[in-house]
Amino acid sequence: MRHGKKFNHLSRTASHRDAMLSNMAVSLIMHKRITTTLAKAKALKKFVEPLLTKAKQDTTNARRVVFSHLQDKLAITELFQTISPKIADRPGGYTRIIKTGFRKGDMAPLCFIELVDFDENMAKTQKKATRTRRSRKSAAPAAEAPAAATAAAEEASVEAPAEEAPAADTAE
User: Fold this and answer.
1) Which of 4, 75, 78, 158 could bridge 26 with an S-S bond, Cβ 3.0-4.6 Å?
2) Verdict on whether the full-model pTM lies above 0.90
3) Cα end-to-end span (Å), the chain
4) Domain holding 110: CATH number?
5) CB neighbours of 42 closer than 8 A, spacing ≥ 6?
6) Does residue 160 fall inside a structural domain?
7) Is residue 172 part of a domain?
8) How many CB atoms lie within 10 A of CB 77?
9) Residue 121 DSSP one-character state
10) What values do phi and psi take at 26, rounded to 5?
11) What is the DSSP string of 32-92?
């Protein structure tokens, strides 16, 4: 019986599974987004998120632990130099899985898995406010009223310092 065993073996031996997840993790770190099947992406998420958490602390031991899983020096350098500073304040959830459809040959569900902080499209940026077009009849009186108010305010601000300056000179 397999009570409580929730590990997906992905129809592979343990050594094949470890090698595959290691290679996929290296590709994810180097490219920031990879396309794969949904089952592999979920397995990869469980594999790579603890490594990203470990990479937050840039110590020799952390580098050795992550290297024991990935076995790629360039990926380790990329992880500790560019990725870990970006995820330093994030408490978890470093990856995102987005479903993209089904593969044509066997109808396997496809998705892409990406690092959350490196997606420009979903980054929280303020959008430029767009103005709506109004009819000219209602816009013309409305435009004249603020223009007249700003002109009156400018005249008052120009006149006020001119009056205060002579008064300040005579007080001395």
Assistant:
1) 75
2) no
3) 100
4) 3.90.1030.10
5) 8, 97
6) no
7) no
8) 12
9) S
10) -65, -45
11) SEEEEEHHHHHHHHHHHHHHHHHHTS--HHHHHHHHHHH--HHHHHHIIIIIHHHTTT--S
